[in-house]
Amino acid sequence: MTQAQTETQAAPQPQSPPPPTQPPRATSEPASTEKEKREQKSFERWRHTLSLITGIGLSPEEFQAEINKQDLKECELRREQLVKNSPGVRFMMNNLQKAGCPLTKNMLECGPCDMTKSGGFSKDHGILLCQNGFFSKKHQEHTMIHEMIHMYDHCVFNVDWNNLRHHACSEVRAAGLGGDCNWSREVRRGFYTFTKQHQECVKRRAILSVQANPKCPDRATAEKAVNAVFESCYNDTRPFDEFY
């Protein structure tokens, strides 16, 4: 038998068994995926916040839409808090109810305005709170009370808003009772008069409001209307016992 034959006929060598199959790592991949999702969500929040601050990555329209959304959210949150917790707001709501003109939630709405306004009253629609017009929660509170006084006057005294003297009287009362003319607000506007500060502020702001009436031709007419009613309307603090 040759060497070649001997090698051919040799018994086959046993082979090593294959390594055991690793079980699928079913738990690690979902955990990793969930972690990635959380990280991505955190990153998107950060990017969104940065975009709002800087405007980078947003068109002017998108940027303004985001600002409007944030303004609306803050205005509505403050409105709910003030309706529940503000003594002045609750007092006016109770007196509107007693007068037969309850202020419902859909009559107290937040919305965008031009930057010269913080609120308005419409006898047909109720009160508009200018969501982009407030610099603080206290400012919004004063605006709500101011507009509620207009609503109270319309309900109780049957105000004719086309009559400049009627309009002037309600503006004097709202400016005097709504908190518009407290010391801190006047300092913010740059007025520092110490003598008759409140009266001067009330008169000045009432004139500005009457001047904006479409029926008012000029400032001189607004001044005349306010001066004619100022003393009696300034001293009429209904439904408050005194200046709020």
From TrEMBL:
Coarse class of the protein's main subcellular location: mitochondrion
Pfam families from the UniProt entry: Peptidase_M76 (PF09768)
Domain of life: Eukaryota
Compositional bias annotation for Pro residues: 14-23
InterPro entries on file: Peptidase_M76_ATP23 (IPR019165)
Family membership noted in the UniProt record: Belongs to the peptidase M76 family.
Reported function: Has a dual role in the assembly of mitochondrial ATPase.
Protein's UniProt name: Mitochondrial inner membrane protease ATP23
Origin species: Mortierella polycephala
Gene name of the encoded protein: ATP23
